[in-house]
Amino acid sequence: MVRARSEERRAEILRAALEVIAERGYRGATLGSVAERVGLTQQGLLHYFPTKETLLIAVLEERDRWDTSGGRDRENWRLDLLESLVEYNAMRPGIVQTFSALLGESVTDEHPAREFFTERYGQVRSSMANVLRLEFGERLPSGLTPERAAPLLTAVLDGLQYQWLLDPAAVDMPNAFRDFLRLLRGDAPQA
Question: What is the pTM of this model?
Fold first, then answer.
């Protein structure tokens, strides 16, 4: 019972941290503001997450778990599941915004999430190569190998998120991704 309550509290802290980071960015978020949001003292929060960096990494790992829950294990993704993920992300702008902001901040040398994102993108590129291999075999219709096309697929996924966050009225992220899939497959354009 105590362990279950502890896990519930951790989940509550992670949700609050996600909100605070979405509102203020990582650098503007404080442990005190997260603690206050969940009714804890900062010292109480430190019982669950001993540093701001450990909290940040836990938030990022939790976000990835949400994306891979419900049978969406990255190793078994297909293009149609990626399409569903894009549609799902379009329904949760706050989470996409937080992830995108942290990704942008992490490119600096000293950012605590840099290693997380570097490792994550290595795994994502490998997963995307597997997705493309399942769909097309060893060569895409363009002649590219899955390994050569994987960084491009990853860039489209993230780039669409940034464009959509900046101007959601102008960028229909799910439809734009479907258009990209038609390009990948070499399908005829739809009217």
Answer: 0.76
